[in-house]
Amino acid sequence: MATTDELLDILMKDYKKPEDLIGENGLLKQLTKRLLERAMQAEMTDHLGYEKHAPAGKKSGNSRNGDYKKTVKGEFGNLDVAVPRDRNSTFEPVIIPKGESRFTGFDDKIISMYARGMTTRDIQGHLEEIYGVEVSPTLISQVTEAVTEEIKLWQSRPLDEVYPIIYLDAVRIKVRHNGQVINKAVYLAIAVNMSGVKDVLGMWAAETEGAKFWLQVVTELKNRGVKDIFIACVDGLKGFPEAIEAVFPNTQIQLCIVHMVRHSLNYVSWKQRKEVAADLKAIYQASTVQQAETNLAAFETKWDATHPTISKSWRRNWERIIPLFSYPSEIRKAIYTTNAIESLNMSLRKVTKNRGHFPNDEAMFKLLFLSLKNIAKKWTMPIRDWKSALNRFTIMFEERMPNL
């Protein structure tokens, strides 16, 4: 009996160029066709209980009844295969089930391309160019439609009881609404769990971003099992901290320092931005809250005559800014900015930029969900210095720590 290598040598003896192997009539496609047909013949034998032409088949009540042609789509392009049938029409092949016209893994290819922001037209062109397969927009919609049920399950799944850190922010996406294209606010919640790994807890959409809707979001998180959050990192949206505290009264609210700095620099000319930014840095990078207050006072003395709005903004939000001074550097790095969620928002904008707008919320959620799944595949390791941060949390929130 020939070995696998010997059989490959025989099959490849006439190989001269790639088309001989992977082309329209290449060896790979021919082998796939033969293997599929052989597999279905073996399934038929198992179904009937006897080999082809075997005496046991006489008067058995069922027998082979030729075959019919079926076109299957896959990475190999369009493939015509002969599907065996029996006289009683009870045979159903497993390897290519009845009603299926796409080979295993083909749907995953479509979903993968869709998740990377490719439009229906892009996917059509790619499949035809690379695999020689023609697919309709309807087929692509049907394949991606299967994601809708998965989104519902994901959005309503039970959550952990305790999250040390949670980041809350919204991204703007163009969607058709009541006959008009508007910039909808898509609310996102990313948490850092007790293992230090990031997890997207959910996404919600509303016409505008506001504290009232954020109240609904955090209420839903509580209804899904969240009992406590140590620190919530948010931007400077008015009423946002109060919305969180209404549901989780023990949660410390940390305003995003990066948002504060950006807001402050909006009042500064380009020539002075570098100097103002350096003086603001002296405030939020101070080693203690007392030093931060001293540096803020120095900032007021220097800049209030020309830019009084900046210090007033920092004074007004001071109680939401200073929680980070209670923590060592390893926790400060994690909570002084909402960059974790802003980075996520940037990735989502990349996959949505090819579309002028979405026809409805469902289409938008479908793409965003698939994109989130791709992004989350990289979140396998704890955030930096997590063990040190967890030890600190254990001391500071001893009575609130879950029993692990």
TL;DR?
The chain has helices at about 5-10, 20, 25-50, 105-115, 120-130, 135-145, 145-155, 210-225, 240-245, 255-265, 270-285, 290-305, 310-315, 320, 330-335, 340-350, 360-375, 385-395; strands at about 65-75, 75-85, 160-175, 180-190, 200-205, 230-235, 250-255. With about 400 residues, it is α/β, with parallel strands linked by helices.
Q: What does it look like?
A:
The protein is α/β, with parallel strands linked by helices and 404 residues long. Helix content is 49%, strand content 17%. The protein contains 18 helices and seven strands. It has a five-stranded mixed β-sheet, sandwiched between helices. The longest helix is centred in the first third of the chain and has 22 residues, at 27-48. It is elongated, with a radius of gyration of 30 Å. The two termini are 58 Å apart. The model has no long low-confidence stretch (mean pLDDT 81).
Q: State the oligomer.
A: single chain
In total, the number of strands is: 7
Number of helices: 18
Sheet with the most strands: spatial strand order? 5-4-3-6-7
Could you spell the SSE succession in H and E letters? HHHEEHHHHEEEHEHEHHHHHHHHH
Radius of gyration: 30 Å
User: For the terminal residues, how far apart are their CA atoms?
Assistant: 58 Å
How would you sum up the major sheet? Answer: 5 strands, mixed
Mean pLDDT: 81
Briefly note the structural class of the backbone. alpha/beta
